[in-house]
Write a structure and sequence with these properties.
Blueprint lengths: L2 H15 L17 E6 L4 E6 L11 H11 L6 E6 L12 H6 L4
Parallel strand pairs: 2-3
Antiparallel strand pairs: 1-2
InterPro entries: Fe-S_Maturation_MIP18 (IPR052339), FSCA_dom_sf (IPR034904), MIP18-like (IPR002744)
Protein name: FeS assembly SUF system protein
Organism: Wenyingzhuangia fucanilytica
């Protein structure tokens, strides 16, 4: 897999992430800024570094699994690892302009 293909797969992963919503906020997890990094290597292995709006988030157990399952559905990928982190802590500043507008923060 070459660099161009890994970039293309990265874009596909982002499109999948934009279909996953935080149950308490009507905005997808990508626009909310919950995805810190998406890495794809030339072997078709993906790693997603993400956070939640708070460590006590009710979807702390299910959200990373949902992300992994939906991204794993991409046939170009051999494996997907989702790592949950709270460093740095998520803040509203991490939301995209689109998310802030949708939630009335702009």
């Amino acid at each position: 897999m070459n660099h161009e293909e890994t970039v293309e797969i990265g874009d596909k992963i982002v499109n999948v992430l934009k279909t996953i919503y935080d149950p308490e906020i009507p905005v997808d997890i990508y626009e909310l800024g919950l995805i810190y990094d998406v890495l794809v290597n030339d072997k078709g292995q993906a790693k997603i570094l993400m956070t939640l709006t708070s460590p006590n988030c009710p979807v702390a157990e299910t959200m990373p699994k949902e992300v992994e399952e939906k991204v794993c559905a991409l046939e170009e990928l051999e494996s997907v690892e989702v790592e949950l982190t709270f460093d740095p802590t998520w803040t509203q500043d991490m939301m995209s302009e689109e998310a802030k507008l949708e939630l009335g923060f702009l």
